[in-house]
Amino acid sequence: METQVLTPHVYWAQRHRELYLRVELSDVQNPAISITENVLHFRAQGHGAKGDNVYEFHLEFFDLVKPEPVHKLTQRQVNITVQKKVSRWWERLTKQEKRPLFLAPDFDRWLDESDAEMELRAKEEERLNKLRLESEGSPETFTSLKKGYLFMYNLVQLLGFSWIFVNLTVRFCILGKEYFYDTFHTVADMMYFCQMLALVETLNAAIGVTSSPVLPSLIQFLGRNFILFIIFGTTEEMQNKAVVFFVFYSWSAIEIFRYPFYMLSCIDVDWDVLTWLRYTMWIPLYPLGCLSEAVAVIQSIPVFNESGRFSFTLPYPVKMKVQFSLFLQVYLVMLFLGVVLNMNQKLFRTEPHGASVKAPDNHPSDLSQTAVETFKLAVLLLKQLKVLGWLFGAEWAHFQTK
């Protein structure tokens, strides 16, 4: 006598990517579930409509599926999930048009095609929103990344300018005035690196990473690089002058106070001593640096006149030769005006990096304080002019010994 094959009740539903089958068997243990040649094979011991027996069934799918079914056992049923190879809506579950008697739709999970497409669009939109949030990051994450980036940038600049400052100081202490004429060849590479990296500071202000004004940062970047790459970099005669030492020393001295101040500001640390040094040392160092730059430009004028470098002739009918020294003279005037305006703003409206401070009212006490500060600035500039006068004298003596 042939043994009768018992089949359980199976309910199915679908989505565009998946098939869901619910096998009505309770207390199932160690089911055998596999897919071979696009046919689902099921065999298990459990309690079904015919009591506690072995139940099995086979289903040949309507279209291709992936041969890795996933099943989950519960006390009352077996849930099977099958992935479609092509994401699309099937008109039926099995390849044969006639539905097996044990198979029925799972109305608890059933969706028609339009509802399924709406669900699919909702899931896709949810996935895109999740990806967008991950790419944009939370505001706290963006702020942390920005602070870390600014901290590392200021740290690199601090290390670069500190190396220049220490190198110049040590060599001057060991070699004395003779080192003035070899400054460019010992620290120029590092100065090139730091000044080119300073472009990042201007870009940060331009794109809103920092709240610094763009124009002052851009003017300083262009001015310093004009001195470094044009005045010093293109003329070997200027590279051997003592003024290079004073320009490099003043630049590096300013930055070894400025960049650590910005570093601590990135991590919301306020060190009163560093703040005082940053805004006090700037008062003598900034005009000294600008005066050194002016001396470098003045000394380069005869060099460019003699070599004719960067000079050009206007086209017909003018046919007039324009010396590069003409632009240098205009640059000197602009440099002087920039120093006066910047000193006036910084001395009497000194403010932290990126902060805005209300200008003081013109009370009598404020005006008297302004007069005192102006007098101090005048004395300071006179002293620095004496230093630069000695510099001219040193240059002249060095020229005569050659």
UniProtKB/TrEMBL annotation:
Catalytic activity: a very-long-chain (3R)-3-hydroxyacyl-CoA = a very-long-chain (2E)-enoyl-CoA + H2O; (3R)-hydroxyhexadecanoyl-CoA = (2E)-hexadecenoyl-CoA + H2O
Compartment list: Endoplasmic reticulum membrane
Any one annotated GO CC term: endoplasmic reticulum membrane
GO molecular function: very-long-chain (3R)-3-hydroxyacyl-CoA dehydratase activity
Pfam families the UniProt entry points to: PTPLA
Keywords assigned: Coiled coil, Endoplasmic reticulum, Fatty acid biosynthesis, Fatty acid metabolism, Lipid biosynthesis, Lipid metabolism, Lyase, Membrane, Phosphoprotein, Transmembrane, Transmembrane helix
Transmembrane segment boundaries: 150-170, 190-209, 242-261, 281-304, 324-343
GO BP: any one term: fatty acid elongation
Membrane topology: Multi-pass membrane protein
InterPro entries: CS_dom (IPR007052), HSP20-like_chaperone (IPR008978), Tyr_Pase-like_PTPLA (IPR007482)
Pathway annotation: Lipid metabolism; fatty acid biosynthesis
Domain CS, residue spans: 5-94
Top-level EC class as recorded in UniProt: lyase
EC numbers, comma separated: 4.2.1.134
Homology family: Belongs to the very long-chain fatty acids dehydratase HACD family.
Free-text function comment from the UniProt entry: Catalyzes the third of the four reactions of the long-chain fatty acids elongation cycle. This endoplasmic reticulum-bound enzymatic process, allows the addition of two carbons to the chain of long- and very long-chain fatty acids/VLCFAs per cycle. This enzyme catalyzes the dehydration of the 3-hydroxyacyl-CoA intermediate into trans-2,3-enoyl-CoA, within each cycle of fatty acid elongation. Thereby, it participates to the production of VLCFAs of different chain lengths that are involved in multiple biological processes as precursors of membrane lipids and lipid mediators.
Name of the molecule in the record: Very-long-chain (3R)-3-hydroxyacyl-CoA dehydratase
Organism: Microtus ochrogaster
